[in-house]
TrEMBL record:
UniProt-annotated stretches for the region Disordered: 801-957
Ranges of compositional bias, category Low complexity: 881-897, 942-957
Encoding gene, per UniProt annotation: EIF3A_3
Protein name: Eukaryotic translation initiation factor 3 subunit A
UniProt-annotated location(s): Cytoplasm
HAMAP family: eIF3a
Cited Pfam families: eIF3a_PCI_TPR-like, PCI
Transmembrane feature ranges: none
Length: 957
């Protein structure tokens, strides 16, 4: 192990060794310097040494050396300059990637060069056998040897960097960048095995990070930046897993993301959640979990509708249609029917686990737990308004499959709708995570659902049906496929079917009175009969006597009820407002208290941290001083031991300072060094004399040996030259005999050559003529096609112009019709206004006439009221058509000259005297009755003949 006084000397020595081609020695020298405990203080020279060190490691593909060096350099610059480690690692990865790309570009067949199952495995036995058996290596094997080692080294580089950076909080960004580059490496070169290992490595790093939380410089997941980096890494892992088709690894990535979200207790950005649910839809579709696939689509729809402001109506329709079709694709029967108790519990646990991944709340208690189901999903689609966003074809399909009862032609009506749906879909311009939606992928599942619905409805109507009829009713599948679907439905207790191929019929299970289908039919039939009876014989309405007596009571009660309700709502609002203000005040006080408490805790933590840091610095300084003092004393004692002088310097113990001890040690070392130098000079002089004497004695011996060697080599050269001349003569004679033997076939060779050339020339001319004919035919056919296309375009343009002209004429006719109708409506309205004006004037005249007649009646003398022979005075006027009879009590009333109200005229005592008149509302009992009519007379309706439609009461109003 070489030692250097300064790091610069090691770097200079390594460059000299590289210049002469000794890279291994240069790498070993730099490795010894980096791993030495002598150079643990960071300086700029160490960074340059590390750059040169990683260059040598990459050039020689020494991954273990690179890992050891980077770990030692991390220890050196961890607390001083962490950016230097980042630069060295970036340079290391850049060199490894560059060399791998260079090797890949040099190879001519990349797919054959990378056809290795495992980059970390050694050579296979068959490769070793082939290398020993075959004399020359083929092109594929040379490519493998050129490209594969560099890709192995690049993969080892990524693993090394991830291992070094896994517990460093200040290099989290570099860790995430390395993971992303490793993901892209696996994606670009289709390295599925390495991708699985990479995911497992990152997963173990996170687990160890949570397990050992007390380590220094550990990344803190509560910081938003760290959370975002780790989430971005997992989402990149999820994308690459789906692109490589590793669906199990993609599902594990989903679980990693969910676990990380639960760990940091923070929901990622909506853009990342859209990617999350978009990949979930792909995973569940590939695993044939249609129920979870539909739930994932529903969450994706909710996110897009809530957070994507650029979402177009077309994209929203496609996403909503995918949600509904995915929900309809779920089988309508229970998949876990007939399973054991243990399997059911496992299925519930799995459903709970998947529901948590999707983000739907499920009851955590086992006894109250409700798993995700098709019925709850469909009800949720309706409640969340998804059905209002889908296309009309999807609405029609949903109505046919879920609401209609068409036992005979359900499949025939569903088929054209499915044909339309299969043509829908396309690229989404405003959704980056789901670039394309194709609704045709749901068509097979929807055809199976339509088959099940038709069989279910047929089983409710028929007991037996022919197989040919079922095949005609279901155009999607052959009867063999229908039979398989039926068997699965029977096994899940969805249908009760028996197929008899000998009779060519299908028998459905018998339904008893307690059967669900028959019970539904009877209840529906009873409801229909009840509605029909109600329409034929409507119930008689009883007259409300109280309502007739108190006609305005309902209005008053309604107004009072509304007033009380309004008052109650105002009181409730005031209470809620007061409670809200109190809660707001409590919340503000609580937030202030928490802020004050947090400030106090922060100040206390800062004070404790400052005191701890101060004590730690003092302890470190004291330890450094003690260590230096001990080292100086040890150096002095060692120097005294090595010294041959009898007189030793006296140590005064605690009175001697560190500087004095260091000076004594340095003086002793200087004296020893001078003595060693003198001895070495004397020994070197002696060695020079000995070496000179030995060379003087050896010079004549070397000269004699050289001359003898020259003579031996000249004789050997002459002998070998004679042998070569003899061999050349023999080869020349053999070649002449071979030429004479082959010269006899020269004429035959010429004849064969002429025959082959002539046949090939004829074949070439024939092919040339055929090609010319074919080209002329193609030109002619293309001319005809262009002519037909031009005629078609002309016809279409003419037809469009004609249609446009007809449309303009139709619009002009419609405008004229509308104007004519508007004019007629205006004239009719004017006539109606004129008739209404005439009727109003006539009503005014009748009211005026009525008022005059009423005044004349009230001004008649009171003596006329006492005459029994003139009943019209108290009743209605005869000329106005009044014919009401006058009560006998009123006719028999004595003429006292006082006005007696009508309701008091029957109350006459036995002496024939009328009771004293009551006082009116103004308190005067002797007021004249003709001053103001009684309120009872005002409310009495009076007819004014056949030509009038008003009454006295209405005129008063």
């Amino acid at each position: 192990m070489a030692t250097f006084a300064k790091p610069e000397n090691a770097l200079k020595r390594a460059e000299e060794l590289i210049t002469v081609g000794q890279k291994q020695e240069a790498l070993q020298a730099l490795h010894d310097l980096i791993t030495s405990r002598r150079y643990r203080a960071w300086q700029k020279t160490l960074e340059r040494i590390m750059f040169k060190y990683v260059e040598l490691c990459v050039d020689m593909r020494r991954g273990r050396f690179a890992k050891d060096g980077l770990i030692q350099y991390r220890i050196v610059c961890q607390q001083v300059n962490i950016n230097s480690l980042e630069e060295v690692i970036k340079h290391f990865m850049h060199l490894a990637t560059e060399r791998a790309e260079l090797a890949r570009n040099q190879a001519q067949a990349l797919e054959e060069a990378l056809d290795v199952e495992d980059l970390e495995a050694d050579k296979r036995p068959e490769d070793l056998m082939l290398s020993y058996v075959s004399g020359e290596k083929g092109k594929d094997r040379s490519d493998r040897e050129l490209v594969t080692p560099w890709f192995k080294f690049l993969w080892e580089t990524y693993r090394t960097v991830l291992e070094i950076l896994r517990n460093n909080s200040r290099l989290e960004a570099l860790y995430a960048m390395t993971a992303h580059r490793a993901f892209q490496f696996c994606k670009q070169y289709k390295r599925t095995t390495e991708f699985r290992r990479l995911c497992e490595i990152i997963r173990n790093h996170l687990a160890n990070l949570n397990k050992y939380r007390d380590q220094r410089d550990r990344p803190d997941l509560s910081i938003p930046e760290s959370q975002q980096l780790y989430l971005d890494t997992r989402f990149e892992q999820l994308k690459v897993a789906t692109e490589l088709g590793l669906w199990q690894e993609a599902f594990r990535s989903i679980e990693d993301i969910y676990g990380l979200m639960c760990m940091v207790k923070k929901t990622p950005k909506p853009s990342l959640m859209v990617v999350y649910y978009g990949k979930l839809t792909e995973i569940f579709w590939m695993s044939s979990n249609h129920l979870y696939h539909a739930y994932a689509w529903l969450k994706l729809f909710s996110l897009q509708k809530s957070f994507n402001k650029n979402l177009s109506q077309k994209d929203l329709q496609l996403i909503a249609s995918s949600v509904v079709l995915a929900a309809l694709s779920v089988p309508p029967y229970d998949q876990s029917y007939g399973a054991s108790h243990l399997e059911l519990e496992n299925e519930k646990e799995r459903s709970l686990r998947v529901a948590n991944l999707i983000g739907f709340e499920v009851e955590p208690k086992a006894e109250n737990r409700v798993a995700l189901s098709r019925s709850s999903l469909l009800s949720e689609l309706v409640s969340k308004g998804v059905m209002s966003c889908v296309t009309q074809e999807v609405k029609d399909l949903y109505h046919l499959l879920e609401n209609e009862f068409l036992p005979l032609d359900l499949a025939l009506k569903v088929q054209p709708t499915l044909n339309k749906i299969s043509k829908l879909g396309g690229k989404l311009s405003s959704v980056s995570s789901v670039p394309e939606v194709q609704l045709s992928q749901y068509v097979p599942a929807l055809e199976k659902l339509a088959t099940l619905r038709l069989l279910q409805q047929v089983s409710q109507v028929y007991q037996t049906i022919q197989i040919d009829n079922i095949s005609k009713m279901i155009p999607f599948f052959d009867f063999t496929v229908i039979e398989k679907i039926s068997v699965d439905a029977v096994r899940r207790n969805f249908l009760a079917i028996k197929v008899d191929h000998m009779k060519g019929a299908v028998f459905f299970g018998k339904q008893t009175i307690e059967a669900e289908g028959l019970r539904d039919h009877l209840s529906l039939f009873a409801e229909s009969l009840s509605k029909a009876r109600t329409m034929i014989y409507p119930p008689a309405k009883k007259a409300a006597k109280l309502g007739d007596a108190l006609s305005n009571l309902a209005e008053i009660v309604e107004k009072e009820h509304k007033r009380l309700l309004a008052r109650k709502s105002i009181i409730e609002k005031r209470k809620e407002e007061q409670e809200r203000l109190l809660l707001e005040m409590e919340r503000v006080e609580e937030s202030k208290r928490r802020e004050l408490q947090k400030m106090t805790e922060d100040a206390e933590q800062k004070r404790i941290a400052a005191e701890y840091e101060q004590r730690r610095n003092q302890r470190i300084l004291k330890e450094i001083e003690d260590r230096e003092l001990e080292e100086a004393q040890a150096m002095l004692q060692e120097a005294e031991k090595r010294s041959k002088r009898k007189k030793k310097p006296v140590l005064e113990g605690e009175k001697m300072t560190k500087q004095v001890i260091m000076e004594l040690a340095l003086n002793e070392q200087l004296r020893e060094r001078q003595e060693r130098e003198k001895k070495l000079q004397k020994y070197a002089k002696t060695m020079d004399h000995l070496e000179r004497a030995k060379r003087e004695e050896a010079a004549p011996l070397i000269e004699a040996a050289y001359k003898q060697r020259l003579a031996e080599e000249a004789a050997l050269h002459e002998r070998e030259q004679q042998q070569e001349i003899e061999l050349s003569r023999q080869r020349h004679a053999g070649d002449l005999e071979e030429k004479k033997r082959l010269g006899r076939m020269l004429e035959n060779k010429r004849i064969l050559q002429e025959r082959v050339v002539s046949s090939r020339e004829a074949e070439f001319n024939r092919l040339k003529r055929e090609r010319q004919e074919r080209i002329s035919q193609i030109i002619q056919s293309r001319k005809q096609e262009r002519e037909v296309r031009r005629k078609m375009i002309f016809f279409l343009r003419s037809e469009e112009e004609r249609q446009k002209r007809l449309q303009e004429e139709e619009e002009a006719r419609k405008r004229e019709e509308a104007e004519r109708r508007k004019k007629e409506e205006a004239e009719r309205q004017a006539k109606l206004d004129e008739i209404a004006e005439k009727q109003r004037r006539r009503m005014l005249e009748l009211e005026e006439k009525e008022r005059r007649e009423r005044e004349e009646i009230l001004r008649k003398p009171t003596a006329m009221l006492s005459k029994p022979a003139e009943p019209p005075a108290l009743g209605r006027p005869a000329e106005l058509g009044g014919s009401a009879p006058i009560p006998a009590a009123a006719a028999a009333a004595p003429s006292s000259g006082k006005y007696v109200p009508r309701h008091m005229r029957g109350k006459v005592d036995a002496a024939g005297q009328a009771p004293p008149p009551e006082t009116d509302r103004w308190g005067s009992s002797g007021s004249k009755p003709d001053d103001r009519p009684s309120w009872r007379d005002e409310r009495k309706p009076t007819s004014f003949g056949s030509g009038s439609r008003t009454s006295w009461s209405s005129s008063r109003r």
